[in-house]
Amino acid sequence: MPLRAKVLSSSSPTAARVQMSTKAAIEVFKPLEGDEPEDVVFNSLKSDMANVIIMKGAGEKAFCAGGDVAALALWNKEGEEGQRRSAEYFALEYKLDHLIATYNKPYVAFMDGITMGGGVGLSIHAPFRIATERTVFAMPETTIGFFPDVGASFFLPRMAGSVGTYLALTSARLTGPNVFYSGVATHYLHSTSLQSLESRLAELRFKDYDNMEKRLATINATIEEYCTGLPHDQPMLISGELRKAIDRCFRHNDITEIIQALRAEEGATKSWAEETIHTLYQRSPTAVNVALRQMRIGGSWSIANTFIREHQIADKFMKSHDFTEGVTALLIEKRAPKWEPESLDAVGMDNIAEPFFAVSKEDKPVELLTDADYYSYPYKGCGLPTEKDVEEQVMLGVMTRGEVLRHFVKGTRGKQGVQEVVKEILDRKITTNKDGKAVWVYDQE
């Protein structure tokens, strides 16, 4: 199975922190023919005794950099049987991601190190996502001729403004505190604090009658105890004029219009726009168009429908040219890929994304392990205030700028990063009326 994960012995003190109690899960996530010795994570039902589930990387370099896509490309070259095996791999991965996204116990992801592709699926849907100075986050799929999956159809369109679309199309990286500022992570800690935090979380005990809200609040307060400040030498990246430019350019529904908007950028964002155009032209034209369509419709999908639809899309990518070509060229043969169509300009007026979203009678939906579902993440208050949160407060029309800022700082008990993020939103999105009250400024179409 080409998604590698370290087995923890059931005798290990930490084993219960990574084991799922769902009976269906234990039947699915077990050694399979062809697995490597350290390919399976979940090997026991003992998590019924666990109060907190912790997911972390086995080493210092990465939390999880994704699956072995080279193996998938080789399978695809075998024809229909190999492509079917690839699709089955994604079905298994998405079942796990959905189980994590709807799991009924507190789940904490230590996003320490590289967190990309499949690693995002293991972390992004958790109520607690901890970034460190070593975190490198990206959805690099369009680089290799694939689409942002593992639930990206759910979480990226729900990011503020057009940030999610920008990350999906360009595979842009966020590092360290900027993973936190963007809302991808809920907390930022120095990596040296993780071991102590893990030990402290293992000591937590809950009453049987404590509801999830109370348990999450206790864990949130515990994590905050280990927050020792944000680095002063790494300012907020997606902010100010850059954030405005991202919203201006990536709000469009057509890749040609996005390119045109980028070419129209002047001043402080002109250089960024030129680099972004160059990046987009390096990506798979098919993948970029699919990702853009995905960002526009995924915001209306439920979490269960997200993984069902993504599996159908992944299946079509396994049967198409660009994924196998991209992986073979970039990761195996170390050469430039030959996309089909060859460039964004060659796409023309063809709607090359539509076939990937078409559902036929032959497309059997993947059977998820539970029927749990939702349209918005059920755990609020674990991370930083969102731009929507600030907008709703400003739209009450009764607060000054300073009062809005104090409202969020006080409401989150001085949570690290709140002042910086809310101040950036206010700088960019409000003006003041004659009474001194904050007024929200909406972008002009």
Automatic annotation (TrEMBL):
It holds the Pfam family ECH_2. GO terms for molecular function: 3-hydroxyisobutyryl-CoA hydrolase activity. It comes from the Eukaryota. It is an enzyme of class 3 (hydrolase). Residues 46-354 form the Enoyl-CoA hydratase/isomerase domain. Its EC number is 3.1.2.4. Keywords: Hydrolase, Mitochondrion. One of its GO terms (cellular component) is mitochondrion. CDD domains: crotonase-like (cd06558). It catalyses: 3-hydroxy-2-methylpropanoyl-CoA + H2O = 3-hydroxy-2-methylpropanoate + CoA + H(+). GO terms for biological process: L-valine catabolic process. It is found in: Mitochondrion. This is 3-hydroxyisobutyryl-CoA hydrolase. It comes from Bombardia bombarda. The lineage of its organism: Eukaryota, Fungi, Dikarya, Ascomycota, Pezizomycotina.
